[in-house]
Amino acid sequence: MPFLRFLFFFFLVSVALNFGWEISQMSLYSFSGVSFSGYDAFVKAHWISAVKDALMCAGLYVLVAIFTRNAGWGKRFTNQRLVFLESFGFMWAVAVEYQGVMVRHAWAYAKAMPLLPGLNVGIVPVLQMMVVPLVGILLVRKQLSDK
């Protein structure tokens, strides 16, 4: 049960962190052609994005748990665990951004968005999936058992 409790709190903290990140990076996206029917719709859209991002954070944690065969891996970071988390976060974010921007055209970047050379995906959303899961784990890892 400690693992499920941890995952639940990690998800909640990740929603809050991702919402803050989503709002802070808004100027790096192009909203031409996108209309929000007021402030409520705008906030709702960003909360939905934050929940989806938090699900990705939880998925990253579980993925590292599978690879390390240790559900409580976040209690004590090793170089291997940190490399897994950051590598999976990077690859996942690049895939999501590439699909969203280049394939589905679900969103677009403003000229201010710094891009990863050769990949043409935004650096800031990629960093989001590398920074937010790590910070979220650090904030709630007391929930984990000592494994």
Summarize the structure in words.
With 147 residues, the chain is mainly alpha-helical. It has one domain (2-143). It contains 4 helices and 2 strands; from the N terminus they run H-E-H-H-E-H. It has helices spanning 2-24, 39-68, 79-103, 123-140, and strands at 29-30, 108-109. The chain has a two-stranded antiparallel ribbon with strand order 1-2. Helix 1 (2-24) crosses helix 2, helix 2 (39-68) packs across helix 3 and helix 3 packs antiparallel against helix 4 (123-140). The longest helix has 30 residues, at 39-68. It is globular, with a radius of gyration of 16 Å.
Q: Which geometry do the CA atoms define?
A: globular
Count of discrete alpha- or pi-helical segments spanning 4 or more residues: 4
**Alpha carbon gap, first and last residue:** 14 Å
Major sheet: arrangement of strands: 1-2
Structural class: mainly alpha
How big a fraction of the residues is strand? under 5%
Task: Quickly count the domains.
Answer: 1
